[in-house]
Amino acid sequence: MTNFKNPALKELTDQQVRFAPPARRLAQLTNAEHLLAEVEPNKQYPYQYICFRITEYRPDSYPDLLIDSRDLEHDLCLFIEALARSTPAVPVDAVAEPVLTLEQISQQFNVSTKTISRWRERGLTSRRVVCNGRRQVGFLQSVVDRFLATNKARVERGSRFSQLSEEERDIFCAEPNAYHASIAARSRRSAGGSRSAWVALRKRSVIRSRTTIATIPTRPSSRQTSVRSMLTQNKLFTALTGEASPWKH
Fold first, then answer.
1. What's the whole-model pTM score?
2. How far apart are CA 29 and CA 35, in angstroms?
């Protein structure tokens, strides 16, 4: 999430970052978070309405511009992050609602901080707060709740993978084509999507270079794998797809 979808919202963001006083930016940040929580799918929103909700000022520019809800969600996240970066950190006690730190979210959902960083690119917006005398990234409870409601499957997948053992991650490291195709068929994702997940995990250094335990066939037989490795494979399949393994032992 690096580029704005709509030039008008990028222009609005640049104007507020450059010219709005810090206190005003904080208020606009809150307004943008409230608007983001109200965006409904498959709708279009007038730019002037968006601008008014954020700045409390209705402009004369772009009177006919309508912005799709998906583009609006994307650009509102960029707007919030830009204002948060440009605004001084505030004491966590001064925030009107509970604030969770990066570590607290990591513990609550049993995921790594790297996973949370990726969630931030998917719409989990943050603020700069001062907690225990340290400047930290903070997440409003309402923002976390909204992200969880709209990304439940993503959060559950991240939590399931964090619970895998070293042996299970070793097996995933094997990456045979048949295994990716089999997972894809049962998780309603493409084989390429399954492979992309593996590549992403390698980039996160979750999977480290090591000797592969075994290559997992589509339907392992007793001659090819031990009962123990088959049980591990079944658990891994469930962790990655959220479904019961189709393989018997």
1. 0.61
2. 10
